[in-house]
């Protein structure tokens, strides 16, 4: 039987190949280290940076961390952030964006590769940007939308504000996942933490435009209805 040594069969020589086991081991070690990192990890920059980059640890979830990061933003928005008013909300977005760039850069070094899936501060900020138009509409009572054919059910009336929140969430996730032209350009244009944040910021602005269209139409229709009612009352 011929000898199956590495010299006669180069394909069996594994000395020059990258070690898959070692690479996997390093990745698992990094994940274990990251998962074990407490949110208040002392004075080292890695501690608070990883905590912020993963949006308080949400990024360590077992599935769809980006979607969960966006959902956290929706929760924060609906539970009070939308009441800040346009100027203050804009300042919060700028602050979160800058913090996200710093935290993402530090977390990349910690995790060992660019735009790690556990970094979800970009989805958090992008989702808040997508919902910005609703901050401007906060003082307007949008009311509800009657659904024909469902009058006798609990779904006969849909709250317009919540409908726009869902629209903003779906639109942002679509732009973030599909990455059409401007979003992909922003992702490729910038490096490190800026690159992590840029595409989601652009996706957030595009989603905000999607929210603005139905919001504008609904506000105009509501104003027209109010004017018509006022005119009828005046005539009577």
Q: Spell the H/E element sequence.
A: HHHHHHEEHHH
| Strands in their spatial order, largest beta sheet | 1-2
DSSP strand content: under 5%
Q: Helical element count?
A: 9
- What would you call the shape? elongated
Task: Specify Rg, calculated over alpha carbons.
Answer: 25 Å
Overall mean pLDDT: 80
Helix content: 55-70%
- Poorly predicted sequence stretches spanning 5 or more consecutive residues: 6-44
Number of strands: 2
Please give the largest β-sheet.
2 strands, antiparallel
By secondary-structure content and strand pairing, the structural class works out as mainly alpha
- Gap between N and C termini: 108 Å
Key traits:
3% strand; 236 residues; 64% helix; mainly alpha; 2 strands; two-stranded antiparallel ribbon; 9 helices
Give an account of the 3D structure.
By secondary structure, this protein is an all-alpha fold. It has a domain at 41-140 and 161-210. It is built from 9 helices and 2 strands. The longest helix is centred in the C-terminal third of the chain and has 44 residues, at 192-235. The model is unreliable at 6-44 (pLDDT under 50).
